Amino acid sequence: NGSAPHVASPPLVRKKLMGYVGFANLPNQVHRKSVRKGFQFTAMVVGESGLGKSTLINTLFNTELYQPKEVLPPSAERPKTVAIESISADIEENGVRLRLTVVDTPGFGDFVNNEESWKPIVEDIESRFDSYLEQENRVNRQKIVDNRVHACLYFIQPTGHSLRPIDIEFMRRLHTKVNLIPIIAKADTMTDEEIINFKDRILNDIRHHNIHIFQLPTYENEDEEALTEQEEIARKIPFAIVGSNQLVHTPDGRQVRGRAYPWGVIEVDNEDHCDFVKLRQMLIRTSMEELREHTTAVLYENYRSEKLLGMGVAQDSSVFKEINPALKMQEERTLHEAKLAKMEAEMNLVFQQKVAEKEGKLKQSEEELYARHREMKEALEKQRLELEDKKRRIESGRPLTPEKSATKRNRFLRT
Ligand code: GTP
């Protein structure tokens, strides 16, 4: 596959984390085996050129991990990403290892014709599914490397308008293959109010175009604190993000990661300034397991069964669904929806038939009424003419019509 990801080989960085991350909690939710093996998590950044994708990767890793090959002076322009590149770091917390990989994709929108710019990205995602499928089909399945994309951060230009056709096209191509997480890029270019309105517009567009973005699940048995945290994160979607790895001084003398402007400093890690903290919390703490699970149970399974069916390998559906409740539920829902749609179509047909019948009857009685009306009118007209004639004759003293006179004569003769 020509689009196979070009994996940059950065040094593995054992990072000291600035504060609590939280993935050490994951073993409580998943197998013990994962503790030994560690976790693999892959996120992808997608969006138009120059929206700050590479910058966000550095901000997430909290380092200039992702650097141009030759070190450039600070004033130099950050080079464009021209190929799909992966970058990984091993993070360790309480003895639990997390291998975090971020895939940077070249920004699109630079060409006169941007119609198929989604293609290389979709192909990259599919080639990762293919590689997993190939490993699953091997006799020795001990060491499966999971390079599948578990989350896709989709960068939206901070226009303040609705989503653009190119964004809609991209998201529609991607949403069946990855967990889409929409992001408003460079949120420091908008006011708080503009961001609120823009978020509304984006969500409306997403709903209108039936695009499925990642939904945070809520579990009933979760404690109140966790639920509140989930709700707070969910409310921020699409996340308004400011990226920067530069340390700047605030007017009150603190040194923070942010962007300095003549009128003040935007802090990356300040929740009042942008949603970066919430995005990181969701990716690394609260929803990592759900993102991985949804990728495996729904997105990958759909891809796999389509692929296998395409190759003529029919699934043993009963066994397959037994072990895959998400697919089973989805199938049941599809069947139910199809049943409802059929009922609706039948009801519509009956309704249309009844309306047509009633219309026919009405038309018939209208015609009958009209004919009767015409007959009565003609009879009345005839009567009127006769009366007028009679009146004229009486007035002019002329005898009545001959047959009428004859009748009179006969009557006279009989008496
Ligand atoms: P491509 O490689 O072309 O796809 O670009 P990219 O999306 O990776 O953008 P990159 O991270 O290279 O950033 C482009 C420019 O935007 C740089 O000058 C960054 O300093 C700047 N930038 C990045 N993030 C932000 C942000 O949150 N706000 C503002 N105002 N500028 C940003």
UniProtKB/TrEMBL annotation:
One of its GO terms (molecular function) is GTP binding. This is Cell division control/GTP binding protein. CDD domains: CDC_Septin. Gene3D superfamilies: P-loop containing nucleotide triphosphate hydrolases. It comes from Schizopora paradoxa. GO terms for cellular component: cell cortex; septin cytoskeleton. Residues 37-310 form the Septin-type G domain. It holds the Pfam family Septin. Belongs to the TRAFAC class TrmE-Era-EngA-EngB-Septin-like GTPase superfamily. Septin GTPase family. InterPro entries: G_SEPTIN_dom (IPR030379), P-loop_NTPase (IPR027417), Septin (IPR016491). SUPFAM superfamilies: P-loop containing nucleoside triphosphate hydrolases. One of its GO terms (biological process) is cell division. Residues 389-415 are annotated as: Disordered. Keywords: Cell cycle, Cell division, GTP-binding, Nucleotide-binding.
